[in-house]
Amino acid sequence: MSLSVIILAAGQGTRMRSSLPKVLHPVGGSPMLQHVLNTAHGLEAEAIHVVYGHGGEQVLGSIHDESVVWVLQEEQLGTGHAVEQAMPGIADDHTVLILYGDVPLTRVETLRPLIEAAADGVALLTVELDPPTGYGRILRDDKGAVRAIIEEKDASETQQAITEVNTGMMAAPAGKLRRWLEALENNNAQGEYYLTDIIASAVADGVAVNAVRAASVIEVSGVNNRAQLAQMERAWQRRQAEAAMAAGATLLDPARFDVRGELVVGEDVTIDVNCVFEGRVVIGKRVHIGPNCFIRDAEIADDVTLLANTVIEEARVGAGSRVGPFSRLRPGAELAGDNHIGNFVEIKNSAIGEGSKVNHLSYIGDTSMGEGVNIGAGTITANYDGANKHRTTIEDQASTGSNSVLIAPVKVGKGATLGAATVLRKDAPEGQLTLTPTKQKSLEGWKRPEKKK
Ligand code: UD1
Ligand code: CA
């Protein structure tokens, strides 16, 4: 049967104390609502309807998903009213699954049985919670059949003691759901149209109500404040850590490991504490990553060592290289392999040939560097004339002396050597030593100034 998912995301989220709509607060680097959309896509939903309201502009501007049907709920009159807003766009023969934009960690595997359980009636996802405070309670008869859901504010003391609660997630045939929603009334403690009241309607119509128990509380938990957001973040990160370990990575502390995007790791990778991975990061085999590294949208090939405090963004590190500590690879840095990049070295938009070394205190920008090059400490490519960027070429086996400045556009020929503190304004010929000498002099009789009394 075809599946239509309705995601409720119209609530304000007052307790977040934020100008950002609640469903846009990120978990693992992407908005909570995006996680729910990913889950809906994972279920191969034919249509996804998002009911939005508070912060509408911001929500529409932040979620880029062509397949979403956006449904505005102008006034938040209750969960039943919210679902009803999406129903005109859904055919009677669809199964409707209701999810929540602030419940980000529900897995596809948990929802599949719920959808299946809606084949012959209504299915609702329940969970055991003690204390059950704040949730709708599941009322069953003496044969154990579900009769209704009672909201806490409408519940008697005996009903409030029930620890099986409504997660809010439900699946139902669209045709019947439509009728039950149209019949909803708001004569309850909160004056809202409760989605939960459809259960009693189903029972009255003799339609089966199938309760599916969720295996874990975190999967059905919502976020109402920043403390719960932090818990959700840790739970998400724990999942990422488990996945990395399952793929063959040793994490020195899975609790100090953060993936805000997609991380692919090869076997026998070791990752020390406090590393953050953003965007899409692909790491090969036997890679060692030291503590406090930040890596975004990068490819790290086999047998690479990244030492402590290395920052890599939109760059590629070829096999067998050693980078860090305190190195910074910026967008467009492409290391061919077996490279050594050392402390306080910044590389931007440059190709570094195989085996070349930039070990200390250098800036290499807009450069094409050949193989086996040695860059002396403090070498700078002066790539910017204040208006335009220019390229530097450094050919195979060239070597630059400490504190050299290469004023681009300029070329250092194959096997050329630059003396220390060379200021290179013209190309350095192949195989030769190029110097820009400044005459050294010493002043006889010179006296060091003395401190005034
Ligand atoms: C709801 C359930 C309760 C369940 C609990 C689980 C009802 C009546 N009650 O209660 O049984 O235990 O969730 O968390 O359904 N929303 C809209 N538009 C509205 C109202 C709500 O989009 O008009 C969205 C909210 O943004 C929120 C979600 O629906 O994400 C739940 O609404 P909320 O008012 O928080 O319901 P609860 O009182 O928590
Ligand atoms: Ca709630």
Q: Can you tell me about this structure?
A:
The protein is α/β, with parallel strands linked by helices and 453 residues long. It is 17% helix and 34% strand. It has eight helices and 38 strands. 43% of the residues are buried. It is elongated, with a radius of gyration of 31 Å. The strands form seven sheets. Strands 13, 15, 17, 19, 20, 22, 23, 25, 26, 28, 29, 32 and 35 form a 13-stranded parallel sheet that branches. Strands 12-14-16-18-21-24-27-30-33 form a nine-stranded parallel sheet. The model has no long low-confidence stretch (mean pLDDT 97). Uridine-diphosphate-N-acetylglucosamine (UD1) is lined by residues 8-11, 51, 73, 76-79, 81-82, 100-102, 135-136, 149, 151, 165-168, 194-196, 222.
List the helices and strands and how they pair.
Blueprint: E1 3-9, E2 26-27, E3 30-31, H1 32-42, E4 47-52, H2 56-62, E5 68-72, H3 79-86, E6 95-100, H4 108-116, E7 121-128, E8 137-140, E9 146-150, H5 157-160, E10 164-173, H6 174-182, H7 198-204, E11 208-213, H8 226-246, E12 249-251, E13 257-265, E14 269-271, E15 275-283, E16 288-289, E17 294-300, E18 305-306, E19 311-313, E20 316-317, E21 322-323, E22 327-329, E23 333-335, E24 340-343, E25 345-348, E26 350-352, E27 357-360, E28 363-365, E29 367-369, E30 374-375, E31 380-382, E32 392-394, E33 399-400, E34 405-407, E35 410-412, E36 417-418, E37 423-424, E38 433-434
Parallel strand pairs: 1-4, 1-6, 4-5, 7-11, 12-14, 13-15, 14-16, 15-17, 16-18, 17-19, 17-20, 18-21, 19-22, 20-23, 21-24, 22-25, 23-26, 24-27, 25-28, 26-29, 27-30, 29-32, 30-33, 31-34, 32-35, 34-37, 36-38
Antiparallel strand pairs: 2-3, 6-10, 7-10, 8-9
The protein binds uridine-diphosphate-N-acetylglucosamine and calcium ion.
